[in-house]
Amino acid sequence: MLKLAVFDFDSTLMDGETIDFFAEELGLGKEVAYITEEAMSGRLDFFESLQKRVGLLKGLDYSIVEKISQNLPYMPGAKETISELKKRGIKVVCFSGGFRSATGYAKNILGYDADFSNVLHQKDGKLTGLVGGDMMFNFSKGDMLTRLQNILGISEEETLVCGDGANDLSMFAHAGTRVAFCAREILRKEANIVIETKDLTQILAKIEG
Description:
This protein is α/β, with parallel strands linked by helices. It contains ten helices and seven strands. A seven-stranded mixed beta sheet has the order 4-3-2-1-5-6-7. Helix 9 (185-188) links the parallel strand 6 and strand 7. The radius of gyration is 16 Å and the shape is globular.
């Protein structure tokens, strides 16, 4: 019986990568998207890639960050799936290697119970190129998941995790139900549910009962 469901945000609950949308404002879309892909495929250390990508955003107006964060395209079925899981008495949490500006805003729209993500540092209304937060490293999601399980008294067998990239591997190690959603091969190999189409409600059929 599932009691906890943890979802990645970028390319899982949201259709795209938040940082790539930011980078497009500075004409750096392709450069940042390339680094993102290398990290998500496991070819680049996540912490190093995050620092590098955020560094490229230095000088971007924070008002633009907020505007983009509040107009992101959510994944088909995200809201419906979270609503149904909560009806079943399951706690739903978002872990994101992305940013609180996006996950905090989406929380009230998609309906998950809590979000753990990173914060873009700003000064005088502009990004400084620095970042800090809960989800900075390859191991961060697994580390946070085990802490949540301990606090809530929830076992691995009672936990579902869902993600798409290499930085989700650490939480896959601590969950009985592991959903690879339109995912990179590195994650698909560790999953016991693989979903190939952009429709999160497909998860519900796989976990009936």
